[in-house]
Amino acid sequence: MRIFRWIAGLALLVCLLPYFCILAAEIWGRIVGCEVGIDTVHPCIVNGADIGQNLTVLGSMGWFAFVTTPLILGIVLVWVLVELISWASKRGSSGA
Prior knowledge:
Layout: H1 2-32, E1 45-46, E2 49-50, H2 52-60, H3 65-95
Antiparallel strand pairs: 1-2
Helix pairs in contact: 1-2, 1-3
């Protein structure tokens, strides 16, 4: 059961990465004072280098959320079902 929890937790973390990328792009853009867009590259000069393309690519990773959000829901549903079955089997075996 412990291995299943680790795998499910890791899968959830991987599925949440698009959301973390959007968050990182927005925070990074606000810290350096640049506009972040997912459709156009805005120039952003930091220490003599233009990081506008990097911010756009990082923000665009959010499009993967259309794929990973249903996976998150499926993983959570399966996880809850497995935990309920495990709990019921432990409860049933100890009460008999």
